[in-house]
Amino acid sequence: MPKLQVALDLVELKRAVEIAKEVAEYVDLIEVGTPLIKSEGMNAVRVMKKTFRNHEIVADMKTIDTGALEVEMCAKSGADIVIILALSNDSTIEEAIRSARKYGCKIMADLINHPNPVERAKELEELGVDYINVHVGIDVQMLGYDPIEILKKVVKEVSVPVAVAGGLDVDRASLCVSLGAEIVIVGSNIVKTKNPKESAIKFRKAIDSAKPVEIVRKSLDEEIREILMQVTTPNVSDAMHRAKAIEGIYPIIKGKKVVGKAVTVYTMDGDWAKPVEAIDVAKAGEVIVIKCSGDSSAVWGELATRSCMNKGIAGVIIDGAVRDVDEIVKLDFPVFARKVVPNAGEPKGFGEINVKIVCGGVEVNPGDWIIADDNGVMVIPQKRAYEIARRALEVKKHEDRIRAEIEGGKTLAEIIELYKWEKLK
Ligand SMILES: O=C(CO)[C@H](O)[C@H](O)COP(=O)(O)O
């Protein structure tokens, strides 16, 4: 039977224990994740072992040196399996194995970031590891990778049990088992969900009745849009290390969300020629972002809005002035602007379409992704759009779980151990 391993990649031990209790019935192995070990040390392994006597406890040390010492520490603290890095020197791996044999635990070698995972897997088997873990780490997952292709190759080459990890969802977990994985490791998609128990049940079912599910990937832009529709501008800001929104630009209609790639416009205060021409340039689902040299006269109004709607444009962001807002409200179209005035300017045709602009302190290039909601407007550089969307989704998942814990009666400071994590002065 395939085994399910929950990876507790948190920094707070209390929360980790609570989540582990919620899912214990449905998982076989409980992993003390690397962040938890770094935050709480061997105490985290000890607490897990004492709390979950019927489970195998995995210490995800990601050891790269001093294999014997780190394995000894873990084994003495109650770990049944210790994860070391396949990238380690053979001598570290051999020492880790010797220590594991002496202190009574097993070694799982993690292929994360190894340049030749299949060759290394064969060597690791020769060296005597007990498990091999085909793993795509969290940062690399954010670039769109998963472990499936490497898993397919590794399972054909080794006979030790193979584990698999790397942002697995229910379908991928099922597929991995049908490909030959014996341990499925799941972190985020159990631990960071609103209801870890329900999620664990879904994974349990999926791996117990594993099928070769076909994983169909959408186009990159479709995936980005789909993810951004699920998150908020605060989630995106957090994912970008608390990056700033375009300053001073807010929605004309509250409760509207805009997601799409930018068509940029530079124009003069009140000169509405280029903004209106940009409607002809923009494609359905795109967002027109206008930088005006000033905001004393409007460059946008009702008629432009109607024209925009005909083309299926997702929204308009104006670092300048708009008018006809009563009509725009009736049309229910998302326009974000710096200022509302009644007077328009003349269509003189100064400026350019699809050039680099700077709006409210933030650079916007054609093709950058825009996400706008009641909190403001965030710009995501095109090159990092997929990664940032994925990271924003992780932020959201983390908040979903914390929200559920607040609903359970705890304070935010208590949940995230705020006092402990204040910067030491
Ligand atoms: O070791 C890890 C990260 O280095 C994680 O524990 C592992 O990737 C499983 O978590 P997720 O399902 O979120 O990828």
Automatic annotation (TrEMBL):
Residues 3-203 form the Orotidine 5'-phosphate decarboxylase domain. Its EC number is 4.1.2.43. Belongs to the HPS/KGPDC family. HPS subfamily. Keywords: Carbohydrate metabolism, Lyase. Coiled coil: none annotated. GO terms for molecular function: 3-dehydro-L-gulonate-6-phosphate decarboxylase activity; hexulose-6-phosphate synthase activity; orotidine-5'-phosphate decarboxylase activity. GO terms for biological process: 'de novo' pyrimidine nucleobase biosynthetic process; L-ascorbic acid catabolic process. It comes from Archaeoglobus profundus (strain DSM 5631 / JCM 9629 / NBRC 100127 / Av18). It catalyses: D-ribulose 5-phosphate + formaldehyde = D-arabino-hex-3-ulose 6-phosphate. InterPro entries: 3-hexulose-6-phosphate_synth (IPR017553), Aldolase_TIM (IPR013785), Bifunct_HPS/DMK_prd (IPR017120), HPS/KGPDC (IPR041710), OMPdeCOase_dom (IPR001754), RibuloseP-bd_barrel (IPR011060), RraA/RraA-like (IPR005493), RraA/RraA-like_sf (IPR036704). This is 3-hexulose-6-phosphate synthase. It comes from the Archaea.
